[in-house]
Structure formats: structure tokens, C-alpha cells
Amino acid sequence: MRVAREGLPFVIGSELVLAALAVSAAMRGSVLLWVVAGLWTIISLWVIYFFRDPERDGPRGDALVISPADGKIVSVVEVDEPGFIRGRAMRVSVFMNIFSVHVNRYPVSGEVRWLHYNPGRFLNAAAEKANLENEQMSVGIVSPIGRVVVRQIAGLIARRIVTYSREGDQAAQGARYGLIRFGSRVDVFVPTDCRVQVQVGDQVQAGLTVLAQR
User: Fold this and answer.
1) Cβ(190)–Cβ(92) under 8 Å?
2) Residues 127 and 38 reside in one and the same domain
3) What pLDDT is stored for residue 64 in this prediction?
4) DSSP 3-state assignment of 56?
5) Is the domain of 138 the same as that of 185?
6) pLDDT at 122 over 70
């Protein structure tokens, strides 16, 4: 199983703790330590699972907007996006739980023209006010369908947003561009003339699910 590079310290750390517990249990002959080691094995496997980074080869095209994240659609609404689009946009919000793949992918191809980091709180990422109050990182892309913003939003237990993008980069639709650790949300803002293909409650996958089409 491929593991995201940001997760390697966590995976290695959990495996080292497991090895230490197993050695201690064997040397001491402690049933309690073996139980702890067994429980830690479950945690170690979950850490690997959390940071999994599967290959994704789904639909691509200049008229398509592909999901940047795995998870559930929690909001589809028309809003103002003053930072980069500077006008009305359709916002599609994907909530990732602790079992979702947390690697994020570009929803469209184009040129990265805008980056904006906003420090903030760590409220429930599924809540509407998280879009205004939570820590977040926004990437603005000039694409064939117009200006698009993809925004990583930290959640209750997310404490680390990772974004590889730099201004001037060429974004490739479906390519990895970041990751959020331990539960969070990703919003995509697209032009209002795009037809949204998903609805609240739908389960989507990064790099595979079409969110909108022009």
C-alpha cells in the first residue's frame, strides 16, 4: 500500500512503539504488555490506512471539475468568493472523516495564480461557519472553465494543512497537491455557469468523481 510522504514519520513512529512494546512483553513475560502491544497493533494499522495514497485514474477534461477529496458532500450552494473569483460562485464542500483518504488532488488543470493562508479556529469542519472561522489554505487556479478556487479547511482534530502549490505552478487535473491530517474539509468554488453533478449526502472520491461540468 502506497503511503503519503507526510505520513511516513507517523507510520515509522507507530511501528517503533509497537516493536518496543513487543520486545518488552517478550522479555518480561507480561500478559498486560502483550495486550497493550495487541491494541497498539490496531492503532499502527489504522495509521497506515489513514495515510494511504492510492493511484487515481478517473475522468479528465477541460469541461470537468473533479473532486479534490474523498468524503461526503455536505454543502452545494451559490456564494460570494471575493478572494480570487471576485464574484458569485458555486461552492461544493466535501467533508473527510478519519477513515477517508486525506490526499488532496487538483480539481482542474491550469495555472496556479493565487495562494492565501488564513489562520483560524478548529471547529467542526462540516459546519457552515467553518468556511469563515477555521484555519484554511486556498489555491486559485486559472483554468479552461475560468477561475476556480480549491480550499483546504482544518477541522476539530486536524492540526496540519499541507499544500505543495506555488504561484506559477501548472496544475494537472487529478494530480496530488496537498493533504490534511486527521479529519477536515475541502471546498471547491467554480463559475456559476457550471452544472453541479452531485448533491448533499453523496460520497465522492478524489480524482474520480465529477463534481461539476460546463
Assistant:
1) yes
2) no
3) 97
4) coil
5) yes
6) no
- Is 117 found in the same domain as 28? no
Radius of gyration of the chain, Cα coordinates, nearest whole angstrom: 19
Residue 82 class from Cβ within 10 Å (0-12 exposed, 13-18 middle, 19+ buried)? exposed
Given the residues 14, 93, 143, 184, select the one marked as catalytic.
184
CB atoms within 10 A of CB 163: 17
Residue whose C-alpha cell is 489555491: 139
Eight-class DSSP state of 130: H
Residue 86 has pLDDT above 90, yes or no: yes
Is residue 184 among the annotated active site residues?
yes
Q: Give the strand order in the sheet containing 64-66.
A: 64-66, 210-213, 195-196
- β-bridge partners, 84: none
Eight-class DSSP state of 87 = E
* Short-list 10, 15, 66, 63, CA closest to 37: 15
pTM confidence score: 0.82
Q: How many domains is the chain partitioned into structurally?
A: 2
Query: How many other CB atoms sit within 10 Å of the CB of residue 111?
Result: 13
Q: CATH number, domain at 180?
A: 2.70.70
Domain that holds residue 189: 64-213
Which residue has 504488555 as its cell numbers?
A: 33
